[in-house]
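Record copied across here:
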Amino acid sequence: MNAANSENNYKQCLAVQGGKTLTIDGIDWYEYRGFLIPAYLPHCIPVINEHNAKQAAHCAGKLLARWDSCFGQVTNTEWWHIVKEGTWSLEHCSQKTKYGIRRGQKKFNARIMSFEEILQHGYAVCEQAVKQYGVTGELPSRERFEKKVQAAQTTGCLEFFGVFCGTTLVGFAENYVQGNACLWESIYYHPDYLRDYSGYALIDSMLDHYLNNMRMLYVSDGCRSIYHQTNIQNHLIKNYNFTKKYSLLQIYYTPLMRVSINSLYLFRHGINLICAKYPQSFILQIGGLMQQEYMRRSCEFRDVIPDDHNQNHSST
């Protein structure tokens, strides 16, 4: 069943959290960092054309709408999602990863948490995790955190997977489930327990649960970062055999935005140098737009691999 024609709990979950969502031409969208993206995991995105995206951007008053196409049907583009498919086995890991997981398993246990547990103990872990890296701007407000738990309760597509030292919560992941696949959106670790491999224990348990027990199509840590490479994605590729699953990046720009992007793109290398020297928010946003446009252009005229099991086979 096409995801666009069935009830989309993922979209509802985003809306309950306070996210701005809309449905145009039977396609669900939501606001993300000032533009629109489809409210689906990548294998559930329905077929979208420029007309659909134009209508959505116009209704939302946004300058651009971005979406994926041909997920898993192209190779070696500059746009990808980090995924783990198939069964999970410790035996396929390096000796270093095996050591970390076994050390972690001795001290920690990991499982899906109840809503009462995450409400009572989760926010304190968020505070400690963010404090460790001094990125206070990334700490959700308590109200936003509680809305996320409420969204999980009412829609059933968001799970909290915790790692415990005895009965003490020392880390957790926020996992969206849609179309028999799982997106790991955010992971928070209490820094005092990382040296004992709490992160290894959590990731091992999640892979075992979603891939082996639930037999899901894949788990994903999300798409390629526009702004920089992320350490966690490199860690997952190196230590847990995650791979890059390529797709085509598509973007609709309003006419004025398209002219601006095309003009600035001529100077993208200089913009990158300015971003490195003066990493202010506004300059970084322009640099991000240039990088995103580079990725989009890399996807033009790419051959699509025939696939009987295309991206629209899963339901939400």
Residues 1-5, 309-316 have pLDDT under 50 and may be disordered.
